[in-house]
Amino acid sequence: MRFSWKARGSFKAMELNEIHFKKPIYPIGSELSRYLVSHARSVPLPIAYDDLLRHDGLMAQRDAEGKETLWTTVMLKPSEMEETHDRLVDLYQLLVADGRRLPYLAVASIDFCAYGNSQPFRIKILNQINDNHDYYYIKKADASRVYGLELEHMLSPNKINYAVHGATLVEEHIIGVPGDDFIKDPEHYGGNFNPVRLCKEFVKFNERCFVRLLGDMRAYNFVVDVIQDFDKVQYRMRSIDFDQQSYEGRHRIYLPQFYKENLPYVELGRQHISMETAEQYAHEERSLLRKRYKLAEDQIRELLEVMRIDRVSTDENRAQLREELALYHHTADFRKCTTMGDILGMQMKVVLGV
Predict the structure, then answer these.
(1) In the 8-state DSSP scheme, what is residue 68?
(2) d(Cα 338, Cα 352) in Å, to the nearest integer?
(3) What is the mean pLDDT of residues 53-58?
């Protein structure tokens, strides 16, 4: 791939690449279920997503400025609250530890967000001994998202902890500052702001998303993790939304540099690193991706074989993406692909040489 701070086109054109329609939920099929069981991702859960839908009401949440947010507070029936809280604590322990009941863990809050495909419940767990808290999420299970989580776990520098059972998906909380909030005032988050290192990470993040065809990485769908490093800071960009894994037909959807929401990152890159340096960073990330692929090659191949016989997109999107990638990479091999799994496998073969 040839990275460009010109974003391979004007930002007016970039607005035409926005996602206008909500992606449907794709059920987890029998082959993917078998894969999840064999790799210990599918386990019985003490509570299901649908159980939380039987709440007693929702109350709007407001931010520090008094504006309503996308999240609402879930109110439970008094007769069901204790049992529900116990099951939620058990689920947290199953996700992060060995499932043993700890009497000092409690549910501090349950929130719900109707925005987005997975319509998540956010569970806040409080350690009553030291007042430390943690979050996790209960979502509708979606095959696209599961493929995205698995690929993130194997191909990115980040490990993902999640579990699936039936129509329920449980995910750990991914720590970081939302990308749109971070770029408004980078020095507020960690001090000693280093624009070159941030631009380097954006180039590498852009490369990772394109290679594994993860779409919709607008600034509010990824977080920035600030890591102190002697007298400087390092940055790690992490996706928090995997619903658009190999779904869209336009290849630019898989390139974060094209979204108008990410324009501040692109503008920062134009100011601080050259095209040659950006291409160097992209090449470095491709090399790292190739090494990660080799380390997990058997499992990635197994996942792609499952994905090749699964349906995670529309016929129109599949036809459009294989044609655009055929033109982009100057190879007709993409036109032989019959599923999104085929296209993803060909993308990795062409870009990484695996």
Answers:
(1) E
(2) 21
(3) 90
207 and 285 Cβ atoms separated by less than 8 Å: yes
Return the pLDDT at 115.
Answer: 81
Among 302, 287, 297, CA closest to 352: 287
Task: Name the residue with tokens 């191949």.
Answer: 301
Q: What is the mean pLDDT of residues 103-115?
A: 94
What pTM does this model have? 0.92
How does DSSP classify residue 9? S
Contact criterion met (CB below 8 Å) for 154 and 127 = no
Residue type, 267: E
Residues 340, 346, 349, 354, CA torsion sign: positive
Q: Residue 84 pLDDT more than 70? A: yes
The pLDDT, as a whole number, for residue 4 is: 64
Q: Are 71 and 112 in contact (CB under 8 A)?
A: yes
Three-class secondary structure assignment of 108-171: EEEEEECCCCCCCEEEEEEECCCCCEEEEEEEECCHHHHHHHHHHHHHCCCCCCEEEECCEEEE
